[in-house]
From TrEMBL:
This is UPF0311 protein NCTC10485_01210. Pfam families: DUF3237. Coiled coil: none annotated. InterPro entries: UPF0311. It comes from Mycolicibacterium chitae. It comes from the Bacteria. Belongs to the UPF0311 family.
Amino acid sequence: MAPEIDTVPTLELLADIQLDIAAVHVTPGPAGTRLTYVIGGGRCDGPALHGEFLAGGGDWVLVGADGVSRLDVRATLRTDDGALVQVTNLGRVRMPPESVERFRAGELIRHDEMYGRSSPLFDSGDPRYEWLNGTYTLAVNEVSLTAVHYRVFAVG
């Protein structure tokens, strides 16, 4: 019998992130439809983390036959004080049919109009941001064809 864990994780706001999408490539395949979102830039702002996302990262999404989008984001953040932070983000998005149609029409689908959750992880060799290396996060997502928004919480 497994030991009982009697704790509930806490959440603390880490940052709000917006990634701007420069292009979207759609490729049907045997595993589902692949959507490659090319990151054109973006912004990160939070209590202890501020910076710009560099162009050139991406979000490789696989939409399965079950309608679930599997997210795989890779991006580089340059903090306002010059540090580089690598960001990887895995997650899931599930939308009701009416939200899918609005998304395809270019609208922003808000967090309360779909299920969109992810877990950004941050890595930096800069001593000022090494605290991020050991921080696990949970994000609530909002998506469109031109931008993705994350409200990121550190899990305590």
